[in-house]
Amino acid sequence: MGRFKARLAVVLINAILVLVPLAAVEGYYRYFRDDLNVPANALWQRFQPYIMFTMVARTYTSWTDTYTGEEIPAEVTTNSLGFRDDREFDFAETYQKAPNEKVVLFTGGSAAWGIGATRGDKTVAGRMEHYLNEAQDKYKYTVVNLGMGSYIAYQQAIALDLYGAAFDPEWVVVWDGFNDASVGCGYSQGTMNPMFFAVMKSYLEGYLLNNPNPPFYRGELFNELLKYSHAVRKISGEQYIENTQSYDENNIEAAYRGVINPDAKLGDAPRMAEFYLKAQRSVANRFWDANVIFSTQPSTHQVNNLWSDYYHQAGTGLYLSRRQDLMERYDESIAAVADQPCNKATYNPAMYYVYAVGALKVEAYAEELRRGGRNVSYYNTAMLYPSGNPERQKFFIDVVHLKDKGMDIAGRFLAGRILRSDLGIEVPTDYLPQELLSHFAPEAVKASAEERTGISAVTATYGANCGAVPGNATVSITSDCLGKKQCDYSIDVNRLGDPAGGCSKDFKVDWQCAGDAEPHSLYVEDEAGYPAQTIQLVCGD
Asked: Any idea which architecture 75-178+277-439 has in CATH?
């Protein structure tokens, strides 16, 4: 008996020696390291039917300005579906309008949703509603925000149909472009696929779609046993689940964003742009009785590197031919890299293609609808901000999300387009620089060849040898030199922006002088603009 008690005591002591440290470790992490807890939804998304996902319903309390490091306090709440709107959305409930009420549906990605805004009334939708009602008292305008984080245009179109149709809108305003340009190749999800598609597909096909009774829980060790043991597979009735996920090792973001479609290529960009256009067609067709504004959202990418001098040709006979020429040049540039795989190290040509060509295609589509009698317009709101950094970055917290003052500019502009159409009210001149309205440039830039004196820049390109968009420096050099007999122009990367990182860029300008039939040319070899260097354009003796 004594020997048994001794052995029992040894067992108990050993159990205590094992359990007490384990309990101490558990207590430490349970009560003192809450910061290590994994959030209930690590993606900040909720799975949804048809639209794939929405943001988690909650209050968002701060944003970080990545350019200054400033932490910006915010109080942005959502409805139960995660949309940045005080109203609850239900496809089966028709919205009851007041007799004088006009509804505007507003959609886009996370910038439209309101990342960067300090309050709900500071989002683009909130500013639109404010300015629409401040300027007049004939109508009560209600702006419904159906923007959603990470959405591409086709998800937006589905959400508009599901939740927006119940509002019977007078206006639909689409403000997007950046997600469609980024998700397909930048995040390597491929054509037609939304954000997170590759990771969702891998789990659905690995578990649900390839197993009749997939386990809800399974450890890696047991999965390996299933791989090699016929007996374990037979007894358990379960099958080995192969890890089919591919990762972009160049993507330093969270692992779930790095799961990619390995078949995505830069050469898919034209199909991505067509799919973007298809989404806009779906919106116009679904809301046939509504007025529609299609618009390209801004980013910190410098507009001259994307659209060259295209919008400065507005109102001239060169406008349509310049658009076609620009699209053809983008086609040539993407064809040269078509076989390269999409990843964070290579995606820029595809992103620029979808962002820029997508905008041009939607503009042409809006013109087509207007010729058919529809009240459909297109505006590139990327043109509403300073063309170069760092001045442009002052309106943003990161590459694509605006601060309050940036949201205000877009909201005022879009509200002004609606007021002009509905009531003939013009946007006050102190809202925005006059030359930015409706894509019209200063009169000096639009002057005909017969009216010009001195220097007239035909085209200037920074980094053509690196695949930069032709004409990306035309606006800059025209601003400095137009009409002068002699002009000293500084080629400066800080002013022009870097159109092709990691490549030594050249600079070429062709210009005409009043009365001369042939253009003059000047070429600066690689490393132009770094450091800044001055060239001289001359007309006459």
From this structure: 3-Layer(aba) Sandwich (3.40)
